[in-house]
Automatic annotation (TrEMBL):
Keywords: ATP-binding, Ligase, Magnesium, Metal-binding, Nucleotide-binding. Gene3D superfamilies: 3.30.1490.330. This is Glutathionylspermidine synthase. Residues 1-128 are annotated as: Disordered. Residues 123-393 form the Glutathionylspermidine synthase pre-ATP-grasp-like domain. Residues 1-48, 65-94, 103-114 have a biased composition (Low complexity). It comes from Streptomyces griseoflavus Tu4000. Pfam families: GSP_synth.
Length: 394
């Protein structure tokens, strides 16, 4: 998540782009939403639990500007260090180009607190939803509506380049599978996986469709297989690690994990260490390591502490997504602790424009800032109903 962003291309010198021009729905029999096929007696499906898929908190790095619709991230803005997705600021990455982290993305929401100060609200390095909107539609919107303008957006090109650079780290002789949960009710996860699959194909990689519910476990070989009983050597999953590690076959995931050292049989993208960077406990750890940092908000794990009497606080579940379980508390409110593990962060209301609460998000690809996404919501908590707002640099 940490590298100085490159400057956007000057206005009038746009590169030629093919942004998802051939995104297509998966065909049978391997469509992500297709019903699980008949399996041999030696296999079973690890992910048959029925649950409603909640979209992830999506965008990344520390906030960009007080006027979210017209500014690009300043040079030196903290960014993510994952190859394909945006991520949070100041997060350590265990080495550059490690084999178990091919093009990965991460995201963190951020904004201003009514002052010129830019503050990081949260991060997500695991599930890159809203990537489609940030990478493709808002670029086409700008080209059609403001052909002479620019945009902080090089996501598509950087994703394709990242897949090319990391191709040699993928297990040979096997396609890269792309999977999401068929419990997705809105179709956003399907389109996100479709777009990432498209970028991998443009990089020359062989790919296949699969849903999480179609993944099988072969008891004879001790390996994960697809619905045709072929071994799954590498897979991008739009499925949170906190679910993957608590599902029925979580033990098999960890026992067969390919960490790039040739000791496992399945390489998962995003890699397992991304779960740490998507845990909101990271916000409290960052504040402990860098107290008073101008781009951080005070945050604690054992309660609101001084925030209860000063600024007020926000209680956030450590693994919550899309604003689920987030509660806001004004100063002077009794500091009641939640039953579930939470991060207690300083209350910093989002800026509002015409009644819309605005949050900024920056994406990082291969250690460099690669794009900006803006979302606005009707309430003070950004949730799954937030609207994506394209931006332009005039």
């Amino acid at each position: 998540w940490n590298a100085a962003p490159s400057s956007p291309a000057p206005a009038g010198s746009r590169p030629s782009r093919s942004r998802g021009s051939s995104i297509r729905s998966p065909g049978t029999p391997t469509a992500p939403c297709a019903p699980t096929g008949t399996r041999a007696p030696t296999t079973s499906s690890p992910w048959t639990r029925s649950r409603r898929w909640r979209r992830s908190s999506r965008n990344c790095t520390a906030c960009v500007s007080r006027r979210p619709s017209t500014s690009s991230p300043p040079a030196g803005s903290p960014t993510s260090a994952s190859p394909t997705r945006a991520s949070s600021a100041w997060s350590p990455r265990p080495g550059s180009g490690v084999p178990n982290s091919p093009p990965s993305t991460a995201a963190s929401t951020s904004g201003t607190t009514g002052r010129p100060r830019r503050s990081c609200w949260s991060t997500n390095a695991d599930t890159p939803t809203s990537l489609v909107e940030a990478a493709s539609p808002q670029w086409f919107w700008m080209e059609e509506r403001f052909p002479g303008a620019d945009q902080w957006n090089s996501l598509h090109e950087r994703l394709v380049d990242a897949w090319k650079k990391q191709a040699g780290l993928l297990p040979p002789g096997s396609p890269l599978y792309f999977a999401h949960s068929s419990a997705d009710e809105l179709g956003e996860d399907l389109m996100t996986v479709a777009y990432l699959k498209e970028t991998a194909e443009q990089a020359g990689l062989a790919t296949e469709w699969l849903s999480m519910e179609e993944i099988g476990w072969d008891r004879l070989s001790g390996r994960f297989v697809d619905n045709g009983l072929r071994f799954i050597r590498s897979i991008f999953k739009l499925y949170p690690w906190e679910w993957l590690t608590t599902d029925r076959f979580a033990g098999h995931v960890l026992d067969t994990l390919d960490n790039g050292g040739g000791t496992g049989t399945t390489l998962w993208i995003e890699p397992a260490w991304k779960m740490l960077l998507s845990n909101k406990a990271l916000l409290a750890i960052l504040w402990e390591l860098y107290p008073g940092h101008p781009n951080l908000l005070p945050a604690h794990l054992d309660g609101p502490r001084e925030l209860a009497d000063t600024t007020g606080w926000v209680a956030k579940p450590l693994l919550g997504r899309e604003g689920a379980g987030v509660t806001l508390h004004e100063p002077g409110t009794d500091p009641v602790l939640r039953d579930e593990p939470c991060c207690y962060q300083q209350l910093a209301p989002l800026p509002t424009f015409d009644g819309n609460h605005v949050v900024l998000g920056a994406w990082v690809v291969e250690d460099e800032s690669a794009g900006l996404g803006i979302r606005e919501s009707s309430g003070p908590v950004t949730d799954e109903y937030a609207r994506f707002l394209p931006h332009v640099i005039l």
